[in-house]
Amino acid sequence: MINKTVNNVQEALEGVQNAMTLMLGGFGLSGIPENAISELVKRKVTDLTCISNNAGVDDFGLGLLLQQKQIKKMISSYVGENDEFERQMLSGELEVELTPQGTLAEKCRAAQAGFPAFYTPAGYGTEVAEGKETREFDGKMYVLEPAFKADFAFVKAWKGDAAGNLVFKGTARNFNPNMCGAATITVAEVEELVPVGALDPNNIHIPGVFIQRIFPRRELREKNRTTNNKTKKLGMLDKNGIAKRIAQEVQNGFYVNLGIGIPTLVANYVREDIEVEFQSENGVLGMGPFPFEGEEDADLINAGKQTITALPGASFFDSSMSFSMIRGKHIHLTILGAMEVAENGDIANWKIPGKMVKGMGGAMDLVASADNIIVAMMHTNKRGESKILKKCSLPLTGVGCVTKVVTNLAVLEVRNNAFHLLERAPGVSVEEIQKATEGTLVVNGEIPEMCI
Length: 452
Prior knowledge:
It is a single chain. By secondary structure, the chain is an alpha/beta fold. Helix content is 17%, strand content 26%. The chain contains ten helices and 26 strands. The protein has helices at residues 9-12, 34-43, 62-67, 83-91, 101-113, 176-179, 239-246, 319-327, 363-369, 430-435, and strands spanning 21-24, 48-51, 71-76, 95-98, 117-120, 134-137, 140-146, 152-161, 166-167, 185-194, 213-216, 254-258, 276-280, 284-287, 310-316, 333-337, 340-342, 347-348, 351-352, 356-357, 373-376, 388-389, 404-406, 410-415, 418-424, 441-442. The strands form five sheets. The chain has a ten-stranded mixed sheet with strand order 15-14-13-12-16-21-23-24-25-26. Strands 1, 2, 3, 4, 8, 9, 10 and 11 form an eight-stranded mixed sheet that branches. The chain has a three-stranded antiparallel sheet with strand order 5-7-6, with helices on one face. Helix 4 links the parallel strand 3 and strand 4 (95-98). It starts with 8 loop residues before the first helix and ends in a 10-residue tail after the last strand.
């Protein structure tokens, strides 16, 4: 047995220097190597390029390095709730390379596996593909993405042994397994360091060959603690009404991906007599409702970083496998939000240039591969301007991919370069919908009210 144990975090970070490229696991604050990050802050290393799905929050995780201006470049899929990250990006203080979440995971896995590059459909037709090689396979366009090159990878595991074997817990797995062995040196911090032989070989997620250093340290911090206090019944035209209508689209035997925001509410309204499993791209299949007070687990969250539960028969997996489910078309229905949808099915949901950049997260991967995409959104913005358009004005997330849109006013089917009005919200007239819709609206016959 080759002993990978080091005495402390200081030894674990030996050799880290200015201007290095670092990989850091985690999703939100779940599964982040927080002790390694704290040591990086103390060492005051600068000009770092950090590869991580997001950058924590302002006062925790990578947000601490951003506060001290130690990061020169962030390679992420999501800016999220980190205001300092967004501020530095918009001001030009920080170089940022936004990458679709599935592509980010696969660039890590490619480095781990020794592949120099790979083709993916995610991002084709958007600014993400600009300047990159594209190629057609079987009638579909793909973008060539190079594997990452990094000096150190810092990961967080639930249990590990001196040989470097690792076991992850819940959705804290996320990007961590994909980053193991994807850099010159991989450092694992574990909540519990157990004797060699204590881990069942059948249950080891990452074998020690991918790990160079391991040390024990535990600190859990919940992100967006969300509990179930029984859903309050609200009006039909709010976000719950939209979710309730979309739930009618879920069919028996479906695997369904739920995006953040309104889509997470859909699970509350699915009929109890059908069998369905909800997938969240941060690594869970069989997602259950929000936990009750006192039952939250910081290692079990959804894509919106809210604490959740797992139903009997649920499974957890890394980010690369999660997007294999999506890219390989094993998910029957994708439900996500949007800022704009165009009459040809284009969608924009991640950026307002110069004002707001939240990142595409997993949306570009989802819309590039899914065949059945339903958008949950408000029909107009706060100024009363239509978000159902002839052509998207914001940077695209995906091209010609949306099949149906459910808003606070209507149910619309997208086909033949037009929005076909299927249903109207209770008490809303066809004329009101027409007035609120900039894109081509097709109205055939009597339009029924939504049955909610």
